[in-house]
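Aim 2 progress update. The chain analyzed this quarter is reproduced below.
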Amino acid sequence: MRKPIIAGNWKMNKTPEEAKNLVTELGPLVKDAKCEVVVCVPFVDLVETKKALRGTKIKLGAQNVHWAEYGAFTGEISATMLKELKVDYVIIGHSERRQYFGETDQTVNAKIKAALSKDLKVIVCVGETLEQYEAEETITVVSKQTIEAFKDISKDELKKIVIAYEPIWAIGTGKTASPTDAEETISVIRKTIKRLYNTAASEAIRIQYGGSMNPKNASELMAMPSIDGGLIGGASLNAQDFAKVVNY
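Predicted structure tokens:
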């Protein structure tokens, strides 16, 4: 059985003080959660959030990482830095990183390798644009992104990777893929992992849904057999709302 994982992606929201207050409120609300709970916060919030998470079951995540261990990469953060801050997870390849900051399938793969080399767990994102969705290219796009992301990643390393399927047209728009559509696409991703590795690997890897999951639709989406959690945006910025998703 795959343990579900619900991760909040705060994006560029919350100061360190606001982060501390949010997770302090959140902790008691999710103490009995049956799923793994993660908050992925801005870099400046990592230290205060880690302190506030002591005594809770909530894991700490970052939103990006660079592929190099150190060097002349102004504004970037290395896996070594994240590891020293005792970060558990890092999001890699989010659609906003691909859209606004030039992330490619190749840089996603390089970043995954860098994170794994420092024993960080990875949430790697794949998903199609509205144009690709309307052109019925979803299966082709997510299959290619998955294949490229996992290039030269060993079967043992899969244990430290979670996939988040995020239809880009559903992020922050209020639109959500229907549970059936989300299940169908996630099944395609799982079949891609089977082709790359084997049946056991495809059945073991956890795949989240990441497009406007919220308290109203979480239970319906989580009822799908191939959906193992959610990568939550807006709903993760409010402790009460996020807790309702976690306790679906």
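The mean pLDDT is 95. The radius of gyration is 17 Å. These observations will guide the mutagenesis experiments scheduled for the next reporting period.
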